[in-house]
Amino acid sequence: MINQLKVAVQEIYDQFDASHDFQHIERVLQNAESILETEPGANQEIVRIAVLLHDVSDKKYTDSKENEDALLNSLNLSDSQKQQIKEIIESVSFNGGNEVAAKSIEAKIVRDADRLDAIGAVGIARTFAYGGAKGRKLYDDAEEVRVQMSEEDYRSKSTASVTHFYEKLLLLKDLMTTEKGKQMAEERHAFMVAFLQQLKNERDGIS
Asked: How far apart are CA 193 and CA 53, in angstroms?
């Protein structure tokens, strides 16, 4: 079932830009597998399915849950399992800090696995890939970093890519929910901090 689902979702993700393509899903699966090794009580199948489906109806690309619903209904799962997966997916998004609580260990694993791919070297690459796809500036010193915002504000304003680091990415390390996720986030967070400092140095003519 997992292998069949991979084939089905790849057709959807291949339509997205490089920040949310199928390679993103493969990396999140890899992160999830690492966390699952330290969480033996988690339902591995539910975690893997939720990872594969978590972006098929991403609000950045569609206003409809059609893909998510159709794929879920194609699987040989109980209604309670389908509902659990939908709740996991709902809890993954940051939503400008207005996130839905991750209540189950499966939800915590999927959320951490996805957020790990939003930070570090890959996170940096993804941020600028998405910014480029949307025609956003690399940086804008006049732009005010928002501390409090609604989900609508978060999604509607086209901020510069560097601003996104301060509004979301640098916050994720402290929002990890599993011990393995917290450990994995440390080095990636430090790399982002170093990158932003180097970027500033080069812009200021220091390096």
From this structure: 31
pLDDT digits (tens, 9 = 90+) for 16-30: 999 999 999 999 999
The two tokens of residue 198 are 């180097």
Cβ within 8 Å of residue 142, ≥6 positions away? none
> In the block, which residue shows the tokens 């993804």?
126
Residue with token string 């489906």: 53
Amino acid in position 144: E
Query: Number of structural domains, the chain?
Result: 1
CATH number at residue 81: 1.10.3210.50
User: Contact, 85 vs 46, CB < 8 A?
Assistant: yes
- What are 68-99's pLDDT values in tens digits? 999 999 999 999 999 999 999 999 999 877 88
